[in-house]
## 1
Amino acid sequence: MHEITLTEAEAGQRFDRYLRKLLHTMPLAAIFKRLRSGDLRIDGKKADGSVRLTAGMKVQLRLPEADLAVVATAAPRRGGAAHTTMRIPSELKPRLVHKDDDVLVISKPPGLAVQPGTGRENEHLVAWLDQQRLGTRSATFAPSPAHRLDRGTSGLVAIGLTPEGLRGLTAAFRDDLVQKIYLAVVHGVPAEAKGTIDAPLLVRTDAGKKEPKVVVDAAGKAARTDYEVLQRGRKTALLRLVLHTGRTHQIRAHLAHLGHPIVGDERYGSKASHDDGFLLHAAELTFPHPRSGEPVHCIDEPPESFAAAVR
């Protein structure tokens, strides 16, 4: 019999979901079978998978030695292969903007992906978090981003450092309690100084790598973006953008629909590449703190390339 005393890192999870992460080599059907038979217990008693865990509970596992060996060496699991041995290039390292016990907000440079799976083995924010060893870690939890930015987008990303922090941030994004303000340099100058793009967006399943992944389509989901022209050039303009919905590629698709694609965003109609990817920057992020409920407001200046591109 193997016993684990739970900490705050496990608190709040359902027992069955905790077991799925802890016993990640065991088929799901086998986990539920052992739950029913009483081989997986809480405080010495047979437990239902829906039980919410609290710190101090003791989980008992009556399992074969091979399965217990996996538990004994368990570490926070990530998608894909291990990626903590290689270092992130200095030009892609994030900059800290805000940090407390539960929440980290960083400034992400363009070119750094938020999650694994972009074809660049180590150039993502999750790898950087693993290397920094920040926040609470257990066999079933590691600090993680609560939302995403495209790899070519720079700016603010909020990260949950504790289970409570990540749950609270994720809920805030899901419930539209987060204010997100972006800056973008676009081709051309909108005729109106201010406006709203209220157009439904549909994700294309057949899009090639250089084709729009998202298009304006009546069959899509409602999406709304407010824009304001901050600076006018002869060929480009700097826009301030406020998101009222959080659709995939929303700003990129909406600005292309407006006839003013983002400079460097070749997928959505830009005719020229840019050394810094495309010129879209998450400049402001305001959200309720997961523990106190007090607003956290973060501001991040765009890269110098934005000012140089408005001409």
## 2
Amino acid sequence: MVTKGGEAPTGRKWWITLGVVCGVFAAVRFACLFNDLWMDEIWSLDLLRTIHSPGEILSVLRHDNNHPLNSLFLYLLMPATHEWTYRLLSWATGVATIWLAGIIARRQFLLLHPQDSAAQVNAAGLLTAIVFGGSYLLIHYSSEARGYAPAVCLGLLAYYALLRGFDAPWSGWAVVFWCASGLSLLSHLVAMQIMLAGLGWSAAKALLARSDRRAAWLRLAWWHLPAWVFLWLYFLLVLRKINMGGGPSRSVADVLGDLAAFGLGFPSQVGFALALPSLLGIVLVALFLIWRRNRPIMVFYALAISVAVFCALFLPHATSLFPRYFIVSGVGALFLVGYVLARLLASHWLPRTAAVIALGLFLVGNGAHTFRLIRDGRGQYQKALRYILAQTPTATVTVGSDYDFRNFLVIEYYAKIAGPGRTIQCCSSKQWPAEGTRWIFRHSLDGEPAPPAAFVDKAGHPYRLDRVFTHAALSGWTWYVYRNLDFWPLSASVL
């Protein structure tokens, strides 16, 4: 039963169950920490080695690979004895996101369906927590040392503060909202989508106010103006001077297909053809159902999901796209997936059965992606380097590359594994040895075709593919290691 104050009783059992859900998926995320750092994580560490104080994270590191809150965490840890500890901030905030998703979904379900039983309201929160916990999209970014997981967590904390305290503007929840909004922006600028969605939610409530609309608009200004002033100052002092990195050019459709596939647990090969239409259908149905009951909540999710997509489609510079740029869109969609599952479970036996099957397939599909992340990581860089060290008899191991910056950044970071008396020497195209390099590393990102099995360099030296070191999707790359046959002429018959 729902109480007179508009709350559904939770009880100790619900909180314990939510804690168990968080604990299970915290363990899953923890298992994903123990693999090689990939290029962007290493790049962040390299940038931080050039500064002399934490304040220079904002004043000196004018690069889009600098996610200030995460950079501060890395700076305070450096040099870490164990590299996986660099990912602990993302892990902790990723686990907190599961907890926040559960309590936000429960509160929203109560607002949308106040007539439902407490058991149904509580189940909605737990279902959404399971969806957030099991989604590979969130597992992946909760286990790498970047700013996406903290941005999502703190953005959701800001939204929860709105839900809890907006109707009582002088409460301490406004302070929570301001602090969470500012810290989320310092984690990563994707958090601006949540801020904009929260502003839309508040504006819809003000427009629908039946009495004293002036007070409603003043309340909106009280809550949101400090956060947007902070964003304006952050832009003037820091963001407008940022140098942007590059990346491969991919279509919006392909990137959103990957987002849907790795959010719902579909195979990546059917991302655009099947996963994206499925997710879009769920989102549209959920938005329609919510529109009929609570328009401010509908406005929140419509904005949270669509803003990044709109920017990617219509801003001319949006060419180097990755699924992580749409993580807030994915988070908004996952809330709606949890809502639809909760509605199905609240119905008769056939929809309930469909919901259980769908949730099972969701967990199995995402579990397969997660298993690959645990197995292959974001690239098997150290394993590949140990392999060429073991295969090369000389003290100096020369390597070339198809993309010097990406590959050499990783190779030079892990070259320490060569040990005393041995050196891995990276040879750029401008410093190519007359005899060629002993090894060449070629790489492929998600969705890119594999390179050929053999090729000849510009000096006429033959290379043949020797080993492939794979990676899990979303970050990093697969390495194709080529052997120079001029150094091993007898191996040509057995390779």
## 3
Amino acid sequence: MLDPKLYREDPEKVRSGLRRRGSHFDLDELLRLDKEKRALALELDTLKSERNTASEAIGKIKRTGGDASVEIEKTRVVGDQIKEKQDTFTAIEEKWRQLALICPNLPHASVPEGRNSADNKVVTSWGTPRAEGVPDHMEIGKRLRLFDFERGAKISGSGFPIYTGWGARLERALLNFFLDTHVNRFGFTEISPPQLVNRASMTGTGQLPKFAEDMYRCGDDDLFLVPTAEVPVTNMHAGEILDSASLPISYCAYTACFRREAGAWGADTRGFLRLHQFNKVEMVKFSAPETSYSVLEELRSHAEELLRMLELPYRVLELCAGDMGFGASKCYDLEVWAPAEKKWLEVSSCSNFEDFQARRADIRTKSDGKTRFVHTLNGSGLATPRVLVAFLETHWTEKGTVRIPAALRPFMDGREEIVAT
């Protein structure tokens, strides 16, 4: 959520940021509702002051034995006016809030101009992508009996794979490798959060109300399956004031992630490229505002190091203003090369939200007697499905096995390769 002071005092700055994003958000309507809401609040304060004055007069008159009927009638009339104005104010405030909640964040000044993914900027790359000529991940999985999409579809529908045998072991090994590296090497605190969250939590991190159609909802309880661990972990501190000396706070968490992908028409859904349920380790950081962009670079470096340890060639994209997610002020995507797919696959998105989420979830910090909103950041560290695609295709050997990089072997019983069983 944007700072209301920003669009009240400098609406042209907000319009410029929205134009950079290619957003058609109705700022004029938000400004109109905000002005109406504040005018009503002022009227309510005036009426309440009148009622208080009349009440004091009634008390004085009664203490002297006089007739307070005129003042009593005045308080009744003013009370009716207050109720009417309060009902109007509540309705206007809710309209303002619902509109403010779907206004996207503004891009940081350093974010490149551009309309879509074609305008994203490659800022670095690592490794030499393997040449084509290897089986794709579906064929490798079939040969080595690593997963079963058909039975997964029978149980739940498409987009819900079953991992089998060494495929299940590889999936678990990757998750444990990610978590242990974050904790032991990067100094994160591991969190194991709930995987069902309430509406307030989904609103706090920006999934609601804008992306409701992409979420899985348990109707009777009005709870949502988490689309990412970002939601429960960020909302751990909702409504809190964090000690400034503790910042930055770094958490990592594994959850299964559930996404309906309702808006993914035309997207490549073959195999592991797009799933309704998948596994991911998430990095979440809470930062002081003045250091959040250096924290973003640190967050990105953690995701990069995981890919280097897995020996997967990758590149880092700085997203242009028109391609960033709803809540981000600045975002990097990390993509790995999948030789059989012949394309780069996103495996991590590292974002600085500045105070956009903190305003929604009311997460603050206090220093020098001054309270202000923290900056929140998060990034995948990492999501397993597309890592698995690149892993199988990159480390496929001529003898029909998958080589296991040294960093992952302790999590795979010391094995150096996955062989057919």
## 4
Amino acid sequence: MKSLRIAASLIAITSACALPLSAKIVGTNIGADGLTAERVAALPDGKRTAWAIYLDRSWAQMIADRSELAAEWNGALPPPGMPAPVGQSLNIPLDQPASWYAGSEGRHRANTIVSFQTPAGGWAKNQNRAGPPRRAGQPYANNSENMEKDPSDFDSPRDRFWTFVGTLDNGATTSEMRFLARVAAAVPGPEGDVYRASFLKGVRYLLAAQYPNGGWPQVWPLEGGYHDAVTFNDDAVSQAAMLLDEVGQGRGDFAFVPAELRAAAAASAARAVDVILAAQIRVGGQLTCWPQQVDPLTLAPTSARNYEMRSIASGESTDIMLFLMSRRDPSPRLRAAVDACAAWLNAHKVRDLAFTETPDGRKSIYEKGAVTWARNYDIATGLPIFGDRDKSIHDTVNDLSRERRDNYSWYGSVPQKAIARYGQWKN
């Protein structure tokens, strides 16, 4: 009788999303192409000029950023050490009362944020904004000095002393900008001008970093490799577009933004909608959802790190849906895109499975009544897939190395937010 119950449990799990009965490697991850001068030169005449201008702007800004940091140091003394990384805990609360932002703690964090703004206008990621301000000559980012150059590692930096110097990864830049706007609203007089100026510089950074097709790379100025992809991962595109959309409306914390810049922000958010709709994955002619990132020129799904393969991504699709549903006067095309993704997510729930701690690390186990989604789904089959550091792609998470099982969110309930909001939006 016990064996029959176990068999029934396995059937329930596999029938929920056609999960495999036996684990196997189903593919090998392939690296992404960056945005290069050679690729731009091969574009048709009508597209080449805009992308060449963008590439030149990125290169010029990279040189300017490096030059300004070098001028601060001036070689007189050893440069200050890197800021200490703090994971994704940025210490940038956005839910405090106005008095907190106007007080000493809010102002201190705002001053630290202003000090770490790059000359281009963006911010690096994973830094403690409650810590001390940046000192003259101190790097803007944590960098990757300890990371070895390894051609087999898609994450190997082109220059390990200059990485993520301006990024939308892990909520960077958009989080700092929202915080500055809160402080600026709470400090309306001349004392708040420094925060308003820094915010406006951030808006111009987002406008300059936006691709001609409306997307954003993960890092700008461009860093090369997968960092150049139009990045839906960690909500980079959707967060930038949401912020610029709110700036364009000019209400609340953003009322101080000049009319000309508000208009540019609104136009930028509209272009982001265009690239989002164009990047939605079709399978057999039918719209599904979105990948984690797409090639900047072709908008084809692409990979990122060794274990982040081309896929339909449930979490990134959630935030894209939420952004699209926030748009006023949605077009028929936008409505069709949201309808299709909601239907796809509903059809690809994984039932009776939990991804949880076991004596052998995190694993997927049978749990009656549980509902979750895989982070990544194979584009052709719609089945969950999972990547390891050796670039192998697996059809079950339990087949991964323990390090990858324990340190990545392979399953989650995030899409439920979009599905719940979709029900209200449709009505």
